[in-house]
Structure formats: C-alpha cells, structure tokens
Specification:
With 567 residues, the chain is α+β, with helices and mostly antiparallel strands. It has a domain of 350 residues: DD-peptidase/beta-lactamase superfamily (Beta-lactamase, 3-Layer(aba) Sandwich), CATH 3.40.710. It has 19 helices and 16 strands. The strands form 5 sheets. Strands 1, 2, 3, 4 and 7 form a 5-stranded mixed sheet that branches. The chain has a 5-stranded antiparallel sheet with strand order 9-8-16-15-14, sandwiched between helices. A two-stranded antiparallel ribbon has the order 5-6. Strand 8 and strand 9 form a beta hairpin. Helix 11 packs antiparallel against helix 17. It is elongated, with a radius of gyration of 38 Å.
Length: 567
Amino acid sequence: MIFSLLRKNPVKIIGERSFALNQARGRLALLSAVFVLAYTVVAIRVVDLSFVQGHLGHQRSVSAQSEAVPAAAIRADIVDRNGTLLATTLKMASLYADPQLIADPADTAQGLVKIFPDLSYGDILQKLQSAKRFVWISRDVTPDEQYAVLELGQPGLGFQQDSKRIYPQGSLISHLIGYTSVDNQGLAGLERSFGRFLNDGKPLMLTVDIRLQHVLRREIQKAITDFDAMGGAGVIVDVTNGEVLAGVSLPDFDPHGAGQAGDQNLFNRFSLGVYELGSVFKIFSTAALLETQNAPMSMTFDAREPIKIGRFTINDYHAQKRVLTVPEVFMHSSNIGSALMGQMVGGENLRDFYRDLGLLESMEIEIGEVGRPMQPEPWGEIATMTASYGHGVATTPLQLAVGVSTIVNGGFLVRPKLVVGPDRSGESEDEVRIVSQKTATAMRKLLRLVVTDGTGANADVPGYSVGGKTGTAEKVGGRGYDTDRLISSFVGVFPMEAPRYAVLVMVDEPKGNKKSFGYATGGWVAAPAVARVISSMGAILGIPAKGRNAEQDISASLKKYVSSDGG
C-alpha cells in the first residue's frame, strides 16, 4: 500500500541533498558518455586494423606490387628431342613486408637476418621503415625459411607465390636455351625467341640430343684444357635435314646466375662469334672448282714456289714444293694450290658460290645471337686467292658446319633448325641444289682422303669411315695477323659412304704441348676431339662399326692421283 502510493506520488528531495544528487547524476552521465565514446573509438580502430588495413590494405599493397612488378607468367617446359627436361617452371614463395604493420622494425630486421644470413641488416631495416605498403624482402624462400618467418609472428610479413625458371642441366646447354629475368622474361637464347610461345603454356621440343651435347662439351673442354686455350665451340648437325643435335660454346655459364657471369662466359662462340677458320674453307673453294670449271681430279697446280702478288706472299704450311693434283692440294692443305684454284674459278664466281652456301650473310635460325660474317671489301684478285683458303673471310662455326653439310649431303642447301616442327614426312619441300651429285660424291672422296692420307689422320675412327678437313688460322692482332694466336679447327663427316652427321670442333688460341710436339694446329688440337666425339656418338646412337675388312674406302679411286712417295 505504501509502495503504491509512492509510485503514484514520488517523494521529491529538495534542498542541498537534491542539488548534490542531481550533480552526481550529471557526472555519472558524462562519465558514461566518455566511456561509450572511448569504446567506440577503440572498436573503430580494431575494425580499421583488422579489416580495412589488414584485408583491404593487404589487397592494396599486393595491387601496388602488381603494378610495380608484373606477375610472372607460367612458362612452359623446354625439352630435348627425347623429352629430357631442359627448362621448367616451379612454384616458389617470396617474402614481402607491409612496413605500416611492423610494430618494431629493428627487432623484426634482427629476426630476418638470422633466417636469411645473406641479407643485410641495414637494408632490411631501411625497407621496414619505408612509407610504402609493399616491399620485397627475399625471393625464392625455402620451406624451412618460410616456417622460420612464420614463427616470428609478425603480421606485417607475408608470402606471395611466384614462379621460378629452373634449368636441370645447368650450364650444359646454356647458350642455346638462354635465361630469363627474375620475373621470367626471356633475355637470351630460345627463352627470348619463344617467350610468348612459352608463356602461352606451349612446350618447346628441341632438335638437340642432350647426350650428344654432353659428349661434345666434354671433348671440347678437354681440348681447351690440354692445349691451355681460352675457349672453344662446336656443333653436330644432321646433314640430311639440318637439325642441330648439339651446340657448344665454352666457357659457358649457369643460367640460374647469368647476371653474375662474365662477358667471356656469356658470349656465344657457336653462332654469334665470327672467325677466320682457315683451311676448312678449302672444302668450298675446291667444290667451286669442280662445280663451275668441271675440273678433273688429274688437274695440276704448281706449288713449288710461294706466290708473290703485290705486297703479299702466299706460302704453304705443309710445303710439298712440287706440282700437285687436285686431291694432293686438298689432302696436303696447300694454300698455294688453293689460291691457284680460286684464281681459276674467278672472284665473282667464288664469292657467289660462298653466298649461295650461306657463308656471307647472317644465318637464319631460331635464336637471336647470330653473327654477321665478314668478307673482303673490295673483293679483288688478291681477296679471291686468299679467300680460297679461308683468309679474309670470317663466319660462325655453325655456318661452316651447315655449309659442309650442304656439300656432302648430295648438294642440297641445308637450313639449320633448333626446334622440332610438325612431321612433314611425305610432303614435298622446296629443295635448292647448290652442287651436283657428281661434285658432292667427289668431295666425299676428297674428305675421306684427308683422314686416310692427309692432315686429318688424328680424326680417324676405325669402322666409321670418317672424312674431314683441318683448319688453322692466325687471329687478327693490332698490326695484322698474330702468328702466336691461332684458331684451330676440324670438321668431320661420317659415314662417308652415305653422310649423316657433320661434327665441328673449334679451339680458340691453343698452345702446343709435348704430346703434339709443340704444334697447335687443327690436325693436332681439334681432329682428335672430333674422333672422340664420333666414337661416343656411335655408342650412343647405336651405329654399328664396320670391320676393317667390311669397310669400303670410298677414297680408293683417288689414290691414282696421289704421288706414291708422298712428295
């Protein structure tokens, strides 16, 4: 009853007590408002940190990074002709930081240096104090490193999945494959030439056989080491279709660290470097004589005395000092005889013949590292005579091997290729004949004669009927040609009855040793290397060797044109 009356008629406290109570209520309301405001501010800040700056901020930072560094494309594989992996792409984690979310940059930098000892504490600290929302810390982080970073418990550190180009064969085929940038953009070799194709996810199959690549590289390196040379190059070509089965340039480099490689390592001697390769050019001048002049093997050239023309003198390194037939000029590698051959062919005819073989223009092939040959200007009488034995004409090792392939395969122009195309068996292709079958057959006999009875004896491999030609050329120095700096080479072809493969080895600045009796010529330096390559090729490709009794020496018919006393 009393409580009901009080509800209907509440008691009002008046006076000092009423004032004190009202004042307390006011203070309580103000205090409550302050607390509500504070909690609201805290709540807004939490939302800002966890969602706006955390989620959206992360998106903004990744977006900003994406604008600065385009996302790497997933590049397809490169494989050899047998499917062996040469280049592939793997997923890798890369560490980044959002400096705005790093509470203690110094402490975080110390923790990261322990995980990544190759990184600089100062560099990391500088990055973590940046005003940016995204900075790279380390690329290609291993799983163990990733786990250690996560243990730091720093919300400002994160990982982004990247792709990394991997080269399982290392430096073995680096000049052909090339390499990419950190963002997987092709910078050299096939990686650059087929960048868009690979980025579209289409794998690339090469004509190269990695087994033959290994053999060729091994034997060129051995020649470089044995003769204390500065470098070398080599190529194996299928003479029937132009497929490049191996291509080597030494010294080479690891494509994973191409940026740290020196200029000598990055330089492609195989298809970019142009060299005067010397007497191997006698293959072409002799073929030109046979083709344009219909010269018989019995034709003779007087090599008893050096040729003096103007201020130049043409001498023979292997002087016979007698009249030589065509086979003798070739097998003894007579400069005098070859010069007289060139004179008979004529300057215009010889130059056109070299051009038709592709020796005077930049070669078309699937990589961009292609050298431009050099030729005498003007091409007068002296140039014609010296160009007949490879003096004054510079070309690439690849071009020379392809030119030889054209001569021996029946005379049809060879177009080199590094990439396996669609199967065109049964289709007719436009064949360009450079020399007749008659000339091609004659040149096979001459090439075989060089190995059986001439300067290329060290290239002989029993059972495989190897033919070839030596080459030794002086390098151009400050005041003309330097007799102490040589380019020594040998190009071999086998089997000569039905040529299938051409093998070229070139060694840059070899020095004679005891085993070579001080000589550093092509016959001593490069010919043995080619022999070792061919011997290994027979085992790898399953080419049966013929016994001495079963092996038909196709050069036998030329012996009647060769002096029995050897000079």
